[in-house]
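Q: I'm writing up a methods section and want to include an example of the input and output format. Could you take the sequence below and give the corresponding predicted structure tokens, formatted cleanly so I can copy it straight into the document?
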Amino acid sequence: MLRILALEIMDGAFDVTGFPSEVALLRRFQVSRSFLREVIRGLTAKGFLSVKTRVGATVRRAEHWSHFDRDVLRWRLGAGENPVFGEDVRAMCLGLECEAARRAAKRRSVDDLQVLEQCLADLAADPSDTAARVIQRVFRLTICAASDRPVMRSLSGLIEAHLLLDARRRPGSTGGRSKAMRRVFWAIRDSDEAGAAAAMRDVIG
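A: Here is the clean output for your methods example:
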């Protein structure tokens, strides 16, 4: 129910004041009032609704929505192809991860380098698309962590969304990015900030 209503809001099914009343939602979904209120709290927490006494629930403007919340990303992915959404995810990854790679070139530890090098070895041993997505996720999250910015550690859902969208859009592309990943590793190892950021653009694609 939470997923259905969130997707309907994102798809413009309700205008700002047109969100259904509690009675209408109870009739539609045949759930208890307590369950419905939990759903409304969930939609409010993710920025979709504003709830006020005597006014009820109203839909918030799109800039308030938690577009990159892990649940919201998963729901969007499950709803099928959306080119605008896919480009938004890619743009966010480019902006954040290229900066993370640049910072990681200055701040990486020996342990970080070992994890990145192991990712490259694992990818060489199994370059299949399925394995490559898992390995690239670890590789990219390690770079985010090595950037020493706490907010970068929360990009897991965004990176997973990008990998899945990329696999749908260009089958076989994930496994083909091993050369770019090696360039990122070499640049971070050599403290080459500009080189790390540039190579990360090629990893993201």
